[in-house]
Amino acid sequence: MSCNRCPDSCPSSPGNLKDIWNRFWTRNKFKKLPKPSISNQATIALVGSPNVGKSLLFNLLTGIYGTVSNYPGTTVDISQGQAVIAGTTVTIIDTPGMYSLIPITEEEMCSRNFLLTESIDLVIHVIDAKHLSRMLALTFQLMETQLPVLLAVNMLDEAEKLGIWVNEKQLEASLGIPVVTLSASQKRGIQTLKAKVANYVTTPALSYSY
Ligand SMILES: Nc1nc2c(ncn2[C@@H]2O[C@H](COP(=O)(O)OP(=O)(O)O)[C@@H](O)[C@H]2O)c(=O)[nH]1
Ligand SMILES: [Mg+2]
After folding, report:
1. What's the whole-model pTM score?
2. Within a domain: residue 72?
């Protein structure tokens, strides 16, 4: 909204805000719908806060043969590997820890840029079951980018010890996206995760309308 007192260069002037808005959303405005079936070219990004188990999950899905490279122009690591899901080989990317799509750290900047500029078929948002409500904020931000999102609620073993029980179906119904509860360290829920990844791209009913 214009206050009518700002010079044209004011960052709050409607023109500049429109530019920022357009730059942020252009990529998403014309985003294709998820592919009808998972293909050899599919790229799946593991995203989430630090220490939620992304890298352990990456290792479980890809084995030990991932490659680590620097995000261009930075010293931030991005790991890439292959996994077999629903009988086909897909690429899995382990992104640097990120609390929010509004970046503060270099890691967050890299993860955000990666998500918004690369061709990603599915984002797996890994969260810690012990801090469910706090971590769902990023889930909503990711959903707003209109990228297909699957929520992986990890650390179930630790949550259960604290008496926290996560209702996968209820969460799925509330959010409108697929949800998997798992414990990467106990290798619990990995097959369900793979099945839901495969299902997600073939079952339009699970797509959220937002
Ligand atoms: N108890 C428990 N520990 C886990 C689980 N998943 C990962 N961890 C541990 O949590 C720590 C952080 O995991 P890491 O994969 O490095 O997290 P990242 O920072 O998200 O990549 C490591 O010590 C893992 O072994 C889990 O499901 N349960
Ligand atoms: Mg990691």
Report:
1. 0.81
2. yes
